[in-house]
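I hope you will forgive my troubling you with a question about protein structure. I am sending you one protein, given as its amino acid sequence and as whole-number tokens for its backbone shapes. Thank you for your consideration; the sequence and its tokens are set out here:
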Amino acid sequence: MNDESTLEPRSARPPVISAAGLGLLLLAVDWCTKLIASARLPLDRLVPTALPFFSWRLSYNTGSHYLLGPVGEWIPYRLLMGIAGTGVAVLAAFLARETRRLPASPLRTVQWLTVAGLVGALGNALEVVTIGRATDFFMIHPFPWPANLCDQFVNAVVFVLLPLSFWFARGMESQ
């Protein structure tokens, strides 16, 4: 008979399922907001809001990247997004596998959130591969290009969660 003090606590569901579920929820919210924006907003017209730094603007990105320019001229956009989406899915699966090996810690929590963010970030790639365009519907000023929730999931992973992962990893190494 096992002593209860030696048993590890069990969670209600494995973290990888929770992270994938949260990521799929983010992905669904991204797609739903794009559908609503496409149905309700005028195309390519700025719609001001009460917030001076935020406005609505529906546009369909069919092959331009704010850093790479018109990518459709040198590689088919659907192919590029298919490759990018596959890369993100593989990265999320690899990170999930590696994160399962970590002990319970802030680093593990941040890495599970990163997995969820990566799954949510697949929205644009899936949209471009399936219908040939990405739907953008809001602008945050002073940035000159429209965005969508998927773009913000990418920003959260790159500018918040990855730096937090490095910070927590350094803290674990010093212990």
The radius of gyration is 19 Å. The chain is about 55% helix and 10% strand. Helices lie at 15-40, 77-99, 106-120, 123-131, 149-173. The longest helix spans residues 15-40.
